């Protein structure tokens, strides 16, 4: 799976259903590229398109249970990889990471806000 596909699934998991134009903007790709990507993920059973109840003209891209499961599995694999790598650090290096956690958390929040764009 491409990084853009994985990032798109993670965005849908974090933010809920989105328009293709919104997803394209968040992921930094063109609308036609996102449309093609959504089509492939839809064929793979990871996402589905649904009508927006508040605006019948709009179609939203939503995670399926398979898509949500993929995101959870990928995140868990990342956690396990970090656990293994952190286990190889010295005590001083672990302490330095712990000290840096507030700054790293803030960076992640800033990145998330930047990727999500303006709130609707």
How would you describe this protein?
There is one protein chain. The radius of gyration is 17 Å and the shape is elongated. It is built from 5 helices and 2 strands, in the order H-H-H-E-E-H-H. The model has no long low-confidence stretch (mean pLDDT 91). Strands 1-2 form a two-stranded antiparallel sheet. Helix 1 crosses helix 4 and helix 2 crosses helix 3. Helix content is 68%, strand content 12%. It has helices at residues 3-15, 20-27, 31-43, 65-86, 91-116, and strands at residues 47-52, 55-63. A hairpin with a 2-residue loop joins strand 1 (47-52) and strand 2. It has 120 residues and is α+β, with helices and mostly antiparallel strands.
Give the arrangement of secondary structure elements.
Elements: H1 3-15, H2 20-27, H3 31-43, E1 47-52, E2 55-63, H4 65-86, H5 91-116
Helix pairs in contact: 1-4, 2-3
Keywords:
2 strands, 5 helices, 120 residues, 12% strand, two-stranded antiparallel sheet, single chain, alpha+beta
Brief rundown of the structure:
The chain contains 5 helices and 2 strands.
Q: What composes the largest sheet? A: 2 strands, antiparallel
Structural class: alpha+beta
Radius of gyration: 17 Å
Spatial arrangement of strands, main beta sheet: 1-2
